[in-house]
Amino acid sequence: MSTVQKVNFEPVSDILATQRRDFVLADKALANPINAVALVDGEWMVIDGNYKLVRASTIGALGNAATQTSYPLFAERGRYDTQAQAQPKMPIVFMGDYEVDTRIFDAAVTVGSGAPITFAGQPLKVATIAIGGRNYSGLVGHGGAADAHPIVARVTRLPAVNGGKLRIIRADNI
Fold it and tell me: Which residues of 48-79 are buried (b: 16+ CB within 10 A; e: fewer)?
């Protein structure tokens, strides 16, 4: 189990080759840091039919898995520049390869035909997880061929040997 900190999504590789894009939030209240369900860096987002950002999984109930390609949020909670806009925008890592340490994951949970996170190279998917009594859209283990949910990343370092953070790699070809 992870814990949410001030920095939850930290690049460990060069991110110059990635494309970060800002999208308008479908629900601007999620940019407010005092909102009980405010977005935190490292949560996973999707682009809806109106070309706006929404959480990749519905956080109302644990275990809801994302059904479309998801992108990690790349802005700390409470940033004034995202709140001050009439239509708040949040940045996501949109394209490119990168390796990051994240705290927004649950290594023990099994969602659908998924599996606990136990080995380097394991594929990951996005689902609703609980950390510290609050729900987030985060990473869980993918179940392989039997799992129909999209793979968003792979494990490169387990939390037990990485200070409690999960190291993942995202490449366009996974």
Answer: eeeebbbbbbebeeeebbbeeebbbbbbbbee
Taking only the tens place, the pLDDT of each residue in 74-104 is 876 555 555 555 578 888 888 888 899 999 9
**Residues, the chain, total?**
174
- Which residue has 């060069």 as its token pair? 14
| Residue 5 C-beta-side C-alpha neighbours within 13 Å | 14
Burial class (CB in 10 A: 0-12, 13-18, 19+), 129: buried
- Kindly state the percentage of the chain with pLDDT values over 90: 48
Fill in the amino acid letter for 129: I
The answer to whether the beta carbons of residues 71 and 150 sit under 8 Å apart is no
The number of beta carbons lying within 10 Å of the beta carbon of residue 141 is 25
Structure tokens at 162: 């990485």
Residue 133 in tokens:
């009594």
Query: CA neighbours within 13 Å on the CB side: how many for 87?
Result: 8
Task: State the pLDDT at residue 172.
Answer: 65
pLDDT in tens, 115-151: 999 999 999 999 999 999 999 999 999 988 889 999 9
Answer for the pair 91, 2: CB distance below 8 angstroms, yes or no.
no
What's the gap between Cα 66 and its chain centre? 11
